[in-house]
Amino acid sequence: MVTVYCYDRCSTCKKALAWLEKNGIAFEFLDIKTRHPDAGTLRALYKKSGLPLRRFFNTSGMLYREKRLAEKLPDMTEEEMTDLLASDGMLVKRPLLVTDRGVFPGFREAEWKTLLGIN
What is residue 92's DSSP assignment? Predict the structure, then answer.
């Protein structure tokens, strides 16, 4: 099953969902603002992704800037970062694609094709 955490007012999310539909990929849509992943889920997704945890932060979001996270993240532990991400879905980079093959924050067609097994 393919799960996509999105925010319905995000243009990148809209583009990603349209791409999934165009490619005939069935998916479960989860509103990242109201149904964001908890800390345990985020830890598992981060591990499954193989990416640095910092890649899971929505660095262009207002909340990220308001909290001055660019300055604070370097001194935070992995646990503190995942707890922070779990505190508000708007801190999580979106769309967040979750498949059996892996996890990818953001929309990059090449990475999504790989995770979805599309040639």
Answer: B
Omega cis (within 30) before 52: no
CB count, 10 Å around CB of 33?
Answer: 17
Please tell me the distance from the alpha carbon of residue 62 to that of residue 73, in angstroms, as a whole number.
16
pLDDT in tens, 2-18: 999 999 999 999 999 99
**Residues 6 or more apart in contact with residue 39 via CB below 8 angstroms:** 79, 82, 83, 85, 86
Q: Please give the model's pTM, rounded to 2 decimal places.
A: 0.93
In the chain, the DSSP E strands lie at 3-6, 28-31, 96-98, 103-105
DSSP lists the bridge partners of residue 104 as 97
Instruction: Give dist(CA 30, CA 97) in Å, integer.
Output: 10
Q: How far apart are CA 63 and CA 86, in angstroms?
A: 13
As beta bridge partners, residue 96 has 5, 105
